[in-house]
Amino acid sequence: DDAGSAGQAAGALAYALLRTEARFALAGYSSSLNLKSAAEARASGRLLVTAGASRTSIFTAGAPDASLVFGLLPPGDNYDESLLASIVHIASEIDAGRANLPDGARCGPNGCRAGLRLSFICVGLTMLGECARFREIAGRHFGVENIAEDVYIPLNLSAAALSNGLLRCKEDRVTVLYIVSKVFEALPEVLSALELVDYTPYAVAGKGMTQSKSYREKVQRGWWQGSHVLDNTIWDESSTTTGEFSGMTSAAFSSRFQQRWAYRPSYLGAAQFAALCALSKAIEAANSLEVETVANEMRLMNLSEFYARVKFDAFGQIAVMPHVTQVPTPLRSKHPGEFDHFMYKTVWPGKGSDFTFPFPSWAFRRCFFERVDLDGTACFGRGHCSAGGACVCQDGWEGVSCEIPRATSSDTMTIVVAVLGAVIAAAAFATLVRLYYRRSQRKLQARLAALFAILHDAHWMRDSQRVSQAWKSLQNFGYTPARASEEVARRSKAQSEEAGVCVAHLLSQDFADLARSRTDKEDPTFYDMKDTFFFGPKPIGQEQTCPRDGGAGCALIDTLVPAHRRRCTHFLSWTWGYTLSTVQDGLSTWTAIEGLAPSEVFLFMCFFVNNQYRILSGKQVSAAELEHTFEACLTRAGRMVALLDTWDNPRYLNRIWTIFEQHVAIQKKLPVTMVLTSGATDALIAQYEAGKPGLLRVMNALTKVNSESAEAHVPDDAEAVKSIILSSSTFSDVDTQIIDFMLHWMSSTFEAHMKQIMAPAGKVGLRKSRTGLSVTVGTESEGFGYFSAFKKSLSSLSEIPEDEDSSTVYVSSDLSTYEKPSAAKFEL
């Protein structure tokens, strides 16, 4: 069992090859797991065929035209290229009259192509890097000016975030939504939200989004809202090609697969079969089992199979463009038994008539599928649905669904005369009732809102008496005791997950005494505290029920008194290797500089907020759990505080978790406040005042970032976090990002210090000594001009003549310009 670890997968492969002396191997699914397996195959001189990896770096790591690793999935970017190209193609075909608009659909006044405007829906923090990369691809097809702002949705698929994001897209006239997510549940949520806000884009697309079993089964049961979504696949199940080696068609393969496994195969099943066909064909052609001879046949292969044409590029990856698929309209029937088979239709490359584009309006589709007779025929077969969703009835029929025979003119007059008086009276009465009802509803909603506000505050304060009183009042509004119990549990869980630890508590003598007495150390690290807080003779919170999962053992935050736990206001990025004094000094100086009351600041601090009994005992996979918790809380807080113990080789830049946190905060363009302890601040300023040597020392210390070799206290966590990074970026890109950020911070502190030197009497620039140093680094639009010039100045420090006084620093007199800046001289 490789437990989802790339390292373990590679180890398992190496063990299998050595134990069996095999010369050829088939890899498993996912690019992350294949990364190290491919390296192991090359190192051991074995031939590896993978049918589950599309990441190009797996193959380009080898020498061109000498590959020992072959992949049956095309490069990942090809999937996105094909989806985006197909949308532009069909829009152009409709404008040229070579394809027709579907019923109930329409483009803008300037045509379909001119109306294309795209936005990416990025689900989860780790997808932000992917979205940034996809924007470049989309710009080539749609034009950069037609790429709108991304919509970010947290992993918990918040309905509010999704609705707000889609409404923003609707206002921005976005016509194409592209979902970027590793969570399959994102697609149904997006489609449901689109219907809810009555927003009909031209197209909804997403790589792999229609592959989940739950989605397919839902569509099979008649969920018409799930139709028309664009996806892609390397294998076209409707293809009639007969394989040269297998002698099978796609239909024959599907039939045999289903007989064997009792479900229909996905493209991954066909890819694995094709991998075996390709390897077998190469062995036969080579008439040998020698690895290099067989590998050479693989490199030369041009095999036509039902799966695809198997032909590899110079690095061993299949050289084909994926097909674009579309989920067809389900059968119009109210009998679930008829939806027993799910089949995509291939729409590109192919005939424009197969492509449903743009989407028909929600109103039209609702009419088409819901205003039906028992046979599922729209408008009872006596009319047709308009784009606005109304049934346009044939002569002789009327009603919402054309279900009522139309009365003659004489019948109509009789009816009108008979009921006219009653209608007028009823309308007047109904108006009065409606006004009274609306007024009553407003009062009811206001009262409920007030009661829930009381309940919310009482929960935070753990005031059981006020909670009980609030629920007694809510019972008058129909809230039963059972519903009350469920709501209490839900709110307790939410508040536990959203809580932060109060800075006043962290700075208190009570907490210091607890840490020292538990660890028997004067200045313990938080690793020292972990052993005694959670695994000592009297573990804190071990006997307390966790409000999140109902199990024994809760997070440390749940044991604190109400005044010390409230909704988190800031996310603290730090490491458990810091000592008690480092954390207290850093937080004390930060709150003093910012003018914050420690009693009103609540930090997401993993030591307190995460349930360490679940993580440290190994009962949970910590990396995945922590990623989700981290993302949700960082999004809620909206700002990060990064605590450094020193500027000189800080521990912060050697830990993978803090590097990852910084990377995500930068990607989300969140403000990050860098905090140093008072002693470290004085040491940093001393280096600035040392001139050129000092600046170079600081620069060198803050640019030693190597995310690939960064560590975590738990090795499996390091492996998992690095996999998350590699899923959307590269180590070198992350390193560059962090280095630029640290230099930006350095430039900000240096600028503040220079302002202090040049400030008139009474003006304070950079605060040091007891007030410490705190600089918030913003986004590119918030001062990167100074940083760019400062970075250029740093790079030119080595060009200063050796005979100059080393305490002389050259600084551009115009730090917003880069071209040939004039220099001013400051004697420090």
Automatic annotation (TrEMBL):
List all disulphide bridges recorded for this chain: 393-402
Q: Which UniProt keywords apply?
A: Disulfide bond, EGF-like domain, Membrane, Transmembrane, Transmembrane helix
Stretch forming the signal peptide: none
Q: Known SUPFAM superfamilies for this protein?
A: Periplasmic binding protein-like I
Q: Does the record carry Hydrolase as a key word?
A: no
Residue intervals of the EGF-like domain: 373-403
User: Where do the TM regions start and end?
Assistant: 415-437
Q: What is this protein called?
A: EGF-like domain-containing protein
The taxonomy runs: Eukaryota, Sar, Alveolata, Dinophyceae, Suessiales
